[in-house]
Amino acid sequence: MATDVVPVLNERIQTSFQSGVMKDRRIAQITKRIRDGTATMTDGHDYAERLGENLSRALTSNLTAETLPDGKLYYNIAKRTVTPALQNNYELTNEVAADIQKIIDKDAGIGLGAVKADFPEERVQGLIDMMTKEGISLEDALAWLDEPIINNSEAFFDDYVKENAKVRNDVGLKATITREVAFNCCDWCAELAGTYDYDKAPPDIYKRHKYCRCIVTYKCGRKAQNVWTKRQWESSPEQIEERKKAGEPSRVISAAERAEQANLIYRDMVTSTMESKDQRKNNRKYKRMKPEERLSAYEKAKEKRTSGR
Ligand SMILES: [Zn+2]
Question: Domain span at residue 73?
Answer without folding.
Answer: 6-171
